[in-house]
Design a protein that fits this description.
alpha/beta, 6-stranded parallel β-sheet
Length: about 220
């Protein structure tokens, strides 16, 4: 009887040792598996970041005498453009005329703008965007001149292939809203997607920039 008890005791001890060994083995294999998963997730995040879409803010803006605010040193549309750059991290490109024939006085500026529109002019642009193909999204900013985009903005749109890109327009105005410019842009870039226009009152950019910034933030969050 004692011998049987001794054998059973020995068997119980062996089984206990085998269980401990199995538990230790499980713990050792679980830790590397978790590390591998974390590494894979990190790699995926890095890949997504590297392959994320790139954005470019393109804008046309004027300084000098402007309606309702007098003489300004930074254009209304330029102010909104900088807010978008700040919040999105996008690159930026300012549309500048190759020959600047735009007066700095308001009445004379509107006369030139009207003449360009009547002639369906395409004023030359000073610089070009290098490698536009790298950008998936283009934020396009402009003032409303006589119910339309300035003619120089059409020069920009017609100078590049925007096929497959997303155009996100924003404008400044003094009562005309977006003036139907979404459809006007779409008529030029037929193979691009043109989003709804953000319309900001120009005087607000000078007199109440904090409110404008809040509006821009909400618009950006809604356009993603």
């Amino acid at each position: 009887m004692k011998r049987i008890i001794a054998i059973l005791t020995a068997l119980a001890l062996l089984l206990a040792l085998a269980g401990c060994s199995a538990n230790n083995s499980t713990k050792e294999t679980t830790a590397p598996a978790s590390a591998t998963t974390a590494q894979a997730e990190g790699t995926k995040a890095d890949t997504e970041k590297a392959s994320g879409s790139k954005a470019l803010v393109v804008y046309f803006s004027r300084t000098g005498e402007q309606y309702g605010v007098g003489v300004i040193e930074k254009g209304n549309t330029a102010i909104v453009a900088d807010m978008i750059v700040e919040q999105t991290g996008a690159d930026s490109f300012e549309i500048l005329p190759k020959t600047d024939n735009y007066p700095t006085t308001y009445k004379e500026l509107t006369d030139v703008a009207k003449d360009e529109q009547n002639q369906n002019a395409r004023p030359a642009i000073k610089d070009t965007v290098q490698n536009l193909e790298q950008y998936d999204t283009i934020y396009l900013g402009y003032p409303i001149w006589w119910g339309d985009l300035p003619m120089i903005c059409y020069t920009f749109l017609e100078s590049y292939d925007s096929s497959g890109k997303t155009i996100v327009p924003f404008c400044t105005h003094e009562g005309s809203g977006n003036a139907g410019t979404q459809s006007k842009i779409q008529s030029v870039v037929k193979n691009a997607t043109v989003k709804e226009v953000l319309a900001i009152t120009g005087t607000d950019t000078q007199k109440d920039p904090d409110s404008v910034k809040t509006t821009v933030t909400g618009w950006l969050n809604g356009s993603k």
